Amino acid sequence: MKFQICESIEELEAEAVVIGIPEGAERCDQRFAAAAAPLFESGDLPLKPLETLILPGKQKIVFIGISRTGDSEAWRRAASTAVRRLKKAKSIAFAGGDLRAMAEGALVGSFSVETYKTNNHSPAVERVVFVGGEPRALEQGAVIGESINWARALINEPSNRKPPREIAERAREMAGSVGLTVDVLEEKEIRELKMGALLGVSQGSDEPPRVVVLRYMGDSGSPDILAYVGKGITFDSGGISLKSADGMEKMKYDMAGGATVMAALRTLALFRARVNCVAVVPLAENMPSGRAQRPGDVVQSMSGKTIEIINTDAEGRLVLADGLAYARKLGATHIVDIATLTGAARIALGPYRVGVMGNQQPFTDSFLAAAKRAGEKMWQMPLDDEYRDMIKSSVADMANSGGRFAGMITAAKFLQEFVADTPWVHVDIAGIAWNDEEKPYLPKGPSGVGMRTLVEFGCSGGL
């Protein structure tokens, strides 16, 4: 998709022009008043948010409803919706709105999950024109949209095409293209580091684990290093604690946290953000076999702490435990982990908000403020000391599962054991990372949630 800015309506060369109509408005942009006035009189305008009304012609006029909030997210969704509904148009134009958000939305709307359909020749918008605006805003919106789609493409990839070694290779390619430093730890180095929690998860698979580390050092004058740690389970069968067959095919998305932190580093590098940031992505498959870890096993994590395996399907927190410890070894002064960690997140918050917990309130507040600015809905959950009792073990330092109750919180409480007093935020995206229902602005499949917030937080200097 190519972007262009033109200075006036008269310069437009596009098959369709999109005009946003705020919810409850009684008139629209004066430049289109002649076409809109009779529609307001007849009651066809205004529209509900994301509804469209198309006037045919050599150059179509497309009215789209904008939420009365009128914020960046409203324009982002409107642009995505327009691109999805106008696929047969090779070029479209937007008259007004938030340029950065719309550029991002146009790219997000262009994403297709149909990569492996042999007859995948669906038409798509090739050129998007904006009337007025700053080139820098357009550039930033395009970078964010491209990074989100990079993550979504990786998340949507079938698991047989993205074992840990393949994701590590794709990380190398992406890092090289944007100037990031990359290290990949292979199984020998992982064993030398005594990452027993990660190794325990991976031992049931024929595919060996990897740890990807990306580095962006954009502030040489600061001692602070922000670490983004992302869960990278390339397929989650549940292991010996096998999941049900219903919906297991979606478990290719269980590395969404890892893809998201890598996409965030890509964006920070292209933004030349003034921050020192590393991404740590522990990668493994969770599979049943004669070698797989069993309920009742005890593993020793990189931190030295021992863990009783109660449920092999609570594997994400195990790989994150070693990822968090390794981030601290790399010198991280602040840590954010992001993961499709618990079904409990979806039960508690539904498919609308991301669960957030942290060990230091000012740091958590700063992160939540970044999420609000980025237009991503997040909600803080409690992390009281009493929840630690729910992961006690009689044979090890802790258990990897606290049972049915407060599952999102006990998972975070488990992770807290591996950050010591380092300021830390845990982000559980399990409820939103995969979109189960078609939306006007988003197809079924990976959503890319969390990437914008990580970028906003990294750029904002909120450490």
Quickly list its features.
single chain, 463 residues, alpha/beta, Leucine Aminopeptidase, subunit E, domain 1, Aminopeptidase, 2 domains, nine-stranded mixed beta sheet, six-stranded mixed beta sheet
Q: Could you explain how this protein is built, in words?
A:
Helix 3 links the parallel strand 5 and strand 6. The protein is 34% helix and 21% strand. With 463 residues, it is α/β, with parallel strands linked by helices. The chain has two domains: 2-133, Leucine Aminopeptidase, subunit E, domain 1, CATH 3.40.220; 159-460, 3-Layer(aba) Sandwich (Aminopeptidase). The strands form four sheets. Strands 7, 8, 9, 10, 11, 14, 15, 16 and 18 form a nine-stranded mixed sheet that branches. Helix 2 runs parallel beside helix 3 (99-110) and helix 4 runs antiparallel to helix 8 (256-271). It starts with a strand and ends with a helix.
In short, what is this structure?
With 463 residues, this protein is α/β, with parallel strands linked by helices.
- Which class of secondary structure composition applies to the elements? alpha/beta
Taking all Cα atoms into account, the compactness measure Rg is 23 Å
CATH architecture of the largest domain: 3-Layer(aba) Sandwich
Number of strands: 20
| Main sheet characteristics | 9 strands, mixed
CATH superfamily of the largest domain: Zn peptidases
Our estimate of the beta-strand percent is 15-25%
CATH hierarchy, class of the largest domain? Alpha Beta
Regions with little confidence, pLDDT below 50 for 5+ residues: none
Query: How is the CATH topology of the largest domain named?
Result: Aminopeptidase
| Fraction of residues in H or I helices | 25-40%
Q: Can you tell me the number of structural domains? A: 2
How far is the N terminus from the C terminus?
A: 35 Å
Count, helices: 13
